[in-house]
Write a structure and sequence with these properties.
- The protein is built from 4 helices and 13 strands.
- The protein has 3 domains: 36 residues, no CATH class; 66 residues, Substrate Binding Domain Of Dnak, Chain:A, Domain 2 (Up-down Bundle); 75 residues, Immunoglobulin-like (Sandwich), CATH 2.60.40.1080.
- The protein has a 4-stranded mixed beta sheet with strand order 6-13-12-9, with no helix packed on it. Strands 7-11-10 form a 3-stranded antiparallel beta sheet, with no helix packed on it. Strands 1-2 form a two-stranded antiparallel ribbon.
- 21% of the residues are buried.
- It is rod-shaped, with a radius of gyration of 28 Å.
- Helix 2 packs antiparallel against helix 3, helix 2 packs parallel to helix 4 and helix 3 packs antiparallel against helix 4.
- By secondary structure, the chain is an alpha+beta fold.
Amino acid sequence: MGTMANGVTLSGVMVNGQTLSGAMNNGVVAYRKAAGGVDKSALEQALSNAAQVDRYQWTAATVGPFDQAYSDGQTIYSDNGAAQTDVDNATTALNNAMGGLVTVTFTAGSGAITLNSSTPTYQIQYVYNGVGTIAFASSNPTRVSVSQTGLVSRIGSGAANSAITVSATGLANITRPVVVTN
């Protein structure tokens, strides 16, 4: 018979044919070890941390390896026959993948876009290396159109004002004012 750290007495508890006894860190680690000889607590913590990651804040090139490490970690965690080395390797791989995430780049230039009869279109040069989607919208689509490739076009004649909003999944929008002159 043993007393656990929190004062609960443990006596005669059997898990997979093994009797648990003695001081047991609240019984959690001892239970896991008795249940299969494997401690998955570090992998459990890594999976919990990974579940909080906002995939849209990171580059596609680094989210891919992260997703793979996360999936592999979930598989190992669910595998009751996993060896301790498999658990440790999955934990290390997931922690390394989280540490290797690189912040996404999202730019679409700056300043006003001017359209007139001699320059009726303008191509927004943008950079986005994330995993989400990018979209363009005009605040005045009857006078200024924008394609989903970022080509801004004047519609009709006469002066007008508009704004083009460039959005990427999970990120703050970029807005470019548009001035249409004769």
